Amino acid sequence: MKKLSARRRHPLAAVVVLLLALAATGGLYAAFAPAGKAQADETSQSLTIKEGKKLYEVGCASCHGTGGQGSSDGPSLVGVGAAAVDFQVGTGRMPAATSQGAQAPRKKPIYTQAQIDQLAAYVASLGAGPSVPTKQQYGPEGADIAKGGELFRTNCAQCHNFTGKGGALTKGKYAPSLEGVAPKHIYEAMQTGPQNMPSFPDTTMSEKNKKDIIAYLNAVNGDETENPGGMELGGLGPVSEGLFAWIFGLGALIAVAVWVAARTAKAKKS
């Protein structure tokens, strides 16, 4: 016992105990700290970017340049963000057709969503830009449909018509119909301003306002929507529908008046 007590009082005993405690603490921290998960996520993201670069080099580099810097055949992609890629590729507008028209039309996408995510990750790595929105950002929960209708008529109806049916623009361009467009893609279009559309970043139009507009479009273009005014004539708006009434309604009245006058003149002659 005396020998054991003497060893415990050895000058180096405290140092040894401290070293053992530090080693044990370090081992436990290494085992349970979230650094491993963060490193795994970073590795996964690096692989996603690597796969996206492969897809980009095959399907996009010929127009947008090997580093996304752009060329005479396509704009620069540096700084457009993942949202622009998810919209353009997810709606089938990109890759563009060989014979390009005034603007790229919506068509069936040729990439899977996983491949689109990889392309978006690679382009996002070229420069900071809008990210792909989450369902919480564009979902209907908490949206104000009436406010969305007001915002849509103020900012969007001039081109897309007041229910989003689309309309013609100049030089063969057009504002596409918003019927059947995924809410995520509508949100991304407002964020990035594709083709002829102006962009509405959060500094111009808040995230809540975008959600309200999407909720309004879902309400007016839903399958269960009934038109209380009867036949909608394409939902092109009061100006075009009023013009329809003037042309065909007034034309019919003129035709009846001419017919009555002709019958009266014939009766007088006889």
UniProtKB/TrEMBL annotation:
Signal peptide: 1-30
Assembly behavior: The cytochrome bc1 complex is composed of a cytochrome b (QcrB), the Rieske iron-sulfur protein (QcrA) and a diheme cytochrome c (QcrC) subunit.
Annotated PROSITE patterns: CYTC, TAT
Keyword terms, alphabetized: Cell membrane, Electron transport, Heme, Iron, Membrane, Metal-binding, Repeat, Respiratory chain, Signal, Translocase, Transmembrane, Transmembrane helix, Transport
Keyword 4Fe-4S: no
Topology of this chain in the membrane: Multi-pass membrane protein
Protein name as it appears in the record: Cytochrome bc1 complex cytochrome c subunit
Keyword field contains Transmembrane helix: yes
Membrane-crossing segments per the record: 243-262
Cellular location(s): Cell membrane
Limits of the Cytochrome c domain: 47-127, 143-221
